[in-house]
Amino acid sequence: MSANKLLQKASKGDVEVIVLGNDRKLEFRDSNIFLSTSSLDHNKTSKNADFLLRPGARFYQDEPLILNINEKSVSTRKGAIIKYDYLILADLFESDTSSIKGYNEDARSVETAQKALSLREDLKKITSGDVVVYHSANSSFTSTFAASLAVSIKSYFSRKDSADKLNVKFISSENSVITDKITEDFIASTLEKNGIQFVKGFKLVSINVKNRELESEGGESIKYDLPVIFASHKYMQYVEKSKIPRSDSGNIEVNTKTLSVKGHNEIYVVGFIGSDYKNNWKTLYNQVDFITSRIAGISSAYPEVENYTYTYNDILVTGDERASTISYEGDSIAVGNESRTDYLIKLYGYQAFFGIYSQGFL
């Protein structure tokens, strides 16, 4: 998206755009599914990067290994050194599942369309027991998204013959699930209204597959029949190895008015709001639009842009085919009225500027 928007704004010949990616065949993840919800299946959940990029962008298939911010270059696994005048960091995280013992043996997730579809099949087969949704505070998915999944699964179960034998639990790694009290209370009341048990302060360290239990850092355990895990995320290896400025929290220090890295006005970050990471298509689109406008303004006489304004819209599924919007703008927070929605029990999906953006499972 960043490459395409920059090419759209810059005068022809003023910029050379290189997209560095590990694989030419891109598996659609939660933040880059461009398919209509009706066509989402195993055969249609990946595209070649060439198909997604505008003419003029060059895709370089390689893995970034080291970000050399002093030399303004990225070293790759194949030994290439790619120089840059401006760098947009748009894929910073990977799921840190290795820190959870037993994750690969029994955990489910919705990180990719393929995994979401696999979860859908599991939910069709289960007839009794506990579906446990665990959310780490350091996941790139919001707690609102995870809670929406729990409510949607509960709504799906309510239509099954064995509904009274199926339970849903929502587990948070922290005692406070989100930074603002308004959203936290809204999530808690929504879970309670839907009969979903809410467990706080449970830091998952291992999955005991034999006993079918989640085990916490403090020694507690919770039984499960189907565990859906929103695991912590960590920076990609090339970011960890770089000397990019960090805040006390360990996050990259970003100027919230320009979205550039502190002390490095040529490096921009998509996905950060100060120390927070928000994986939401509207936030990401607004950031991409702002960043590419700044670069085009410097390099190609594109009109100057004002400071970045933080806006973020989240959606909490509140019941069967019902949801509310939570809007954040600067320091203000507003919870919309509950309304009938096609935000979708069968598949998370909402309209993006180039088609349907989907996050789905049922």
Q: How are the SSEs placed, and which strands pair?
A:
Elements: H1 2-9, E1 17-21, E2 25-27, E3 46-48, H2 49-52, E4 57-61, E5 64-68, E6 73-76, E7 81-83, E8 87-89, E9 93-95, H3 103-106, H4 113-125, E10 129-135, H5 143-158, E11 166-172, H6 181-193, E12 197-199, E13 204-208, E14 213-216, E15 221-223, E16 226-230, E17 233-235, H7 237-241, E18 260-261, E19 264-269, E20 272-273, E21 276-277, H8 281-300, E22 311-319, E23 322-329, E24 332-335, E25 339-340, E26 348-352, E27 355-359
Parallel strand pairs: 1-4, 8-19, 10-11, 10-16, 11-12
Antiparallel strand pairs: 2-3, 5-6, 6-7, 9-17, 13-14, 14-15, 18-19, 20-21, 22-23, 23-24, 23-25, 26-27
Helix pairs in contact: 1-8, 5-6
CATH architecture of the largest domain: 3-Layer(bba) Sandwich
Radius of gyration: 21 Å
- CATH H level, superfamily name of the largest domain: FAD/NAD(P)-binding domain
User: Mean of the pLDDT scores?
Assistant: 83
Tell me the CATH topology of the largest domain: FAD/NAD(P)-binding domain
Q: What percent of residues adopt helix (DSSP H or I)?
A: 10-25%
Distance between the termini: 27 Å
Would you tell me the structural class of the helices and strands?
A: alpha+beta
CATH class of the largest domain, please? Alpha Beta
Number of helices: 8
Q: Summarize the main sheet.
A: 4 strands, parallel
Strand tally, please? 27
Strand content: 25-35%
What global shape is seen? Answer: globular
Number of domains: 2
Strand order of the largest sheet: 12-11-10-16
Which consecutive residue ranges, at least 5 long each, have pLDDT under 50?
30-39, 342-362
